[in-house]
Each structure stands twice: as structure tokens, then as C-alpha cells.
Amino acid sequence: MAETLLRVENLTKTFGGLAAVKDLSFEVKKGLITALIGPNGSGKTTTFNMISGHLKPSSGAIYFEKIRIDKLPPFKIARLGIARTFQNLEIFGHLSVIENVLLAIQNRRPVKFWEIVTRAPSFFKKEKEAQNIAFSYLKPLGLENWALSPAQSLPFGLQRYLEIARALALEPKMLLLDEAASGLDASEKELLLKIISNLKKQGVTILLVEHDMNMVMEIADEVIVLDQGQKIAQGTPREIQRHPDVIAVYLGEG
Ligand SMILES: Nc1ncnc2c1ncn2[C@@H]1O[C@H](COP(=O)(O)OP(=O)(O)OP(=O)(O)O)[C@@H](O)[C@H]1O
Ligand SMILES: [Mg+2]
Question: Containing domain of residue 155, as a range?
């Protein structure tokens, strides 16, 4: 039985009178791919936002490697090893592709102030190293030839890849992907699937939100189903596919 990496306990988030997430509990096992699915508005992104620290829960708790994280700011949660992408891309459009990734690298290997002002040899060495590391994240995603282009000039699919490269540059233990396949064409989706399975092989734990059920069924080890902010089912893709409550929710959606 795989070890628990993330534990969500009785999580609730209300906006005004509306409970976007209601008394939600689940665990994410280390090294596995877990999918969080559910109809539009069922609370998937809100759950991600609480895990990454972008939203504070109204009640409940979140533990990552047994450390309570739900009161920590996003940058501290990122340093503990949780990286994410956003459903609505959040890249720095006016910065170049490589600069977007360099920002993430600098986050975990800071250059000291005195190294910059004295233009110390160590500054140039670190800068060169950081560039090499950045390229190592751009290359597998086919982004190396775009390195110097403004991020906003990339075709949409590549902008999604850039967000993934930037998240990976944080060297996370766990990666949260919020609809990373949305807007991708068939071949782009295929590369995304390859990347996700390679990450799994490298030991990165993945929690993903995805509407493409074929993709979920193909790659997920475990599926959690939300409806109106509550968990209605959890199991393997095969179990979920046959679950009457899940079928009812998706049929209801058309
Ligand atoms: N900042 C906010 N303020 C008010 N209501 C919000 C806020 N964020 C989300 N909601 C509401 O909370 C509910 C859950 O939204 P959420 O974005 O988590 O759903 P989702 O499952 O990610 O949906 P989708 O599949 O469309 O991305 C929705 O009713 C949404 O309108
Ligand atoms: Mg969402």
C-alpha cells in the first residue's frame, strides 16, 4: 500500500452563502496519479486553490507529508514541494519563455545580492547553470526553439506546456494540473500523456483535474468524484466508470 503524501480533512470553503467545497476528505498516495473529476462548478479548482494556498479554507485541514499547510502562503507551500498549473493560464506573457522558467529556478537556488552587485564569477556561473537547467525543462516539451520569444507569442498549446515546464522547474514532489489538456489538440494531448507518465516514473505524485474522461481512464490510478462540492465516489477508473452515483451525475449533465 502506497504511503499517503497529501491528506485533506473535512475541507469546506464557502463564498457568501454558497458552499463551493463541503466537508471534503481524501488522501493522495505517493507516486500515484490521482484524478479529481466532477461537473462544472463542482469545486475542483477551489480544492486546488486551497491545497496550493491561493485560498484559505473556511474549515478543515490539509496535511502534506504530515505538515499542516492550510494556513501557509503559496510560496511556502511551493517550497515544501507542491507545484501547480492554472486552469486559466498564469504565465508572464511579456517575459520570454526561458525567463518564465528561470523565475522558478531562482526560487529554489537564489543568487545572493552581493554576487549580483560585485558581478562575482559565482554569479555568472550560477546564471549559466540556471540557463542550462531551464533548457532541460524546455526541451522535452518542444519549447527550446521558443526560449527567447515572449511567452504570449506562443501558440496556446505551447503556453500550457510552458506552465508545466515552470511548475517542474520547482522540482516538486507533487504536481497539481488543473485541466492541463483543455484546448490541446490530439497530438498535444498525446505528448502531455507521455510527460505525465514520465513524471510518474520519476516518482512525482500527480493530482489532476480533467474533463477528458478518456485521458482520466487511461492514466489515473485513483479517481475522486465531486458533485456540488462533495465527494460522491472514489476508486479505480474501472470502479468509477460503473458507479451508479457517478453515472447519474454525468448523465444529468448530458
Ligand atoms: N472566488 C469565488 N467567489 C465566489 N464564488 C466562487 C469563487 N470561486 C468559485 N466559486 C464558485 O464555487 C463553485 C465551484 O467552483 P470551482 O471553480 O471550484 O468549480 P470547478 O469544479 O473547478 O468547475 P470547472 O469544471 O468549471 O472548472 C462554483 O459555483 C463557482 O461559481
Ligand atoms: Mg475548475
Answer: 92-171
Which atom of ligand 1 lies closest to the CA of 48?
18
Entry pTM: 0.93
Residue ending a domain, choose from 142, 171, 200: 171
* Ion ligand 2: residue ranges with CB closer than 5 A: 44-45, 87
Report residue 18 as a C-alpha cell: 454558497
Fill in the amino acid letter for 145: N
E-state strands within 30-154:
33-37, 59-64, 67-68, 82-84
Q: How far is C-alpha 10 from the chain's CA centre?
A: 21
Q: Is 25 within a domain?
A: yes
Transcribe 210-254 into DSSP letters: -S-HHHHHHH-SEEEEEETTEEEEEE-HHHHHH-HHHHHHHHHT-
Give 2-28 pLDDT, tens digit per residue: 899 999 999 999 999 899 999 999 999
Q: Which residue has the cell 464557502?
A: 14
Number of domains into which the chain is organized: 2
Kindly give the distance from the C-alpha atom of residue 45 to the centroid of ligand 2, in angstroms, as a whole number: 4
